[in-house]
Amino acid sequence: MRLVALVESESHVCCRYRLTAFRGALIAAGHTLDFRPLPQSLVGRFSLGRDLTSYDAVLLQRKLLPQWATALLRRRVRRLLFDFDDAVYLRDSYSPKGFSDPKRAARFRATVSACDLVIAGNATLAAEARKFVPADRVIVIPTCVDVTQYPLASHSANDGVRLVWVGSSSTLQGLERFGPTLSAIGRAVLGTRLKLICDRFAEFPDMPVERCVWTEASEATEIAACDIGIGWVPDDPWSRGKCALKVLQYQAAGLPVVANPVGVQGDFVRDDITGFHANTTDEWVNAIRALAAGAALRKRLGDTARAEVESRYSVEAGARLWVESLSRLTTARMAG
């Protein structure tokens, strides 16, 4: 199948993790995958799809177009796919207008209804799409990581532990809300420090912060140089649709993770198996204290987490789902 993806940009994190990562496996299975930037101008939107008729399928990634543009695209292409990894039918956790947005919701319904296949990043997102289309037109392909790019953490005994958080300026807002708990951890577990891998930084009383400017080339190594990954998100409708990429990154490096069990974080992090759930400040402090005191515990949980990523959330695992889905789509079209 000749597949072309309409993306915000090839360097965008969603494109890199949800499409580019699988390109080699798709080619090996006999498919092709090209990328085109999604036109931003009105003229470009009116022309959308006219130059894509040679492709077997067009994949729209994450972007919700005006309903008229979606209708034009649907009429002009052979097959239409939609891939999304956020609750794009809502406003995000930090919007002053609240979560509900009738315009987004209407665009989402029109988009998924127009598609031959919808690829959702998790079960929460898939359930939302299945409100508008038959269940067999929606599949879950989680965001995956290339485990081979992550060295394993050493988990040597030391006098203090290094927590790690990786993200962007937009998601740092969430960590800043979590600041009082980080400060409590710093006071209760002496020697603890926090490495922030980001393009913007924050300070927290009583919690020393190491600033690490994010780069694609150094990200995996910087994560693996730490001891414990932390994942905190607001418990709200937007966050329940997140795909928890950062948690998978920590686990790929063999780190135990402490996280509040919101959305898929509750699936990825399992108590005393791959890390610990924590909701209250006391639960966070106790989890970090236990991990700080035991290098062997950190290694046991981290090794299990790494193995689970390899089997379920690696690029190889995701590629198998993509190949199977495209094969079913081709077979269904031929049968029709």
What report would you give on this structure?
The chain is an alpha/beta fold. It folds into 2 domains: 2-144 and 314-335, Glycogen Phosphorylase B (Rossmann fold, 3-Layer(aba) Sandwich); 147-313, Glycogen Phosphorylase B (Rossmann fold), CATH 3.40.50.2000. 42% of the residues lie in helices and 16% in strands. The chain is built from 15 helices and 12 strands. It has helices at 13-18, 23-28, 42-46, 67-76, 102-114, 123-129, 169-177, 179-188, 219-224, 237-240, 245-252, 265-268, 281-293, 295-313, 315-335, and strands at residues 2-7, 32-37, 57-61, 80-84, 117-120, 138-140, 162-166, 193-198, 209-213, 228-231, 257-259, 275-277. The strands form 2 sheets. The protein has a 6-stranded parallel sheet with strand order 2-1-3-4-5-6. It has a 6-stranded parallel sheet with strand order 9-8-7-10-11-12, with helices on both faces. Helix 14 packs parallel to helix 15 (315-335). The longest helix is centred in the last third of the chain and has 21 residues, at 315-335. It is globular. The two termini are 17 Å apart.
